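Need residues for this backbone.
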C-alpha cells in the first residue's frame, strides 16, 4: 500500500464536537473543565485537541444526562474527511 492509499482516522475538533451535539464551542471547554470530557482521549495537533469521531459519537449517550448526537453532522464530518476510518 502506498502513501496515497493510507487512510486517516476521522477526527473532530472542538467546533466539530460542539456541532455534533448542537452546542457552541465554549460548552465543550466546560465539559473539559467539569471533568466530563478529558484530553486523555484526544490528540493534540498544533495546540488544538482532536478526538476520534467514534469517541465523540459515544460521548453524549454515555453522559449522566444522555444527549444524542446529530447524525447529519456526523455524516457530514465523515464525508468531509473521507477516505478515512
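Answer:
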Amino acid at each position: 500500500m502506498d502513501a496515497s492509499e493510507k487512510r486517516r482516522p476521522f477526527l473532530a475538533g472542538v467546533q466539530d464536537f460542539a456541532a455534533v451535539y448542537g452546542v457552541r464551542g465554549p460548552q465543550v471547554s466546560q465539559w473539559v473543565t467539569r471533568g466530563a470530557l478529558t484530553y486523555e482521549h484526544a490528540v493534540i495537533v498544533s495546540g488544538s485537541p482532536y478526538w476520534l469521531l467514534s469517541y465523540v459519537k459515544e460521548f453524549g449517550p454515555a453522559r449522566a444526562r444522555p444527549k444524542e448526537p446529530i447524525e447529519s453532522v456526523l455524516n457530514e464530518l465523515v464525508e468531509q474527511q473521507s477516505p478515512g476510518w
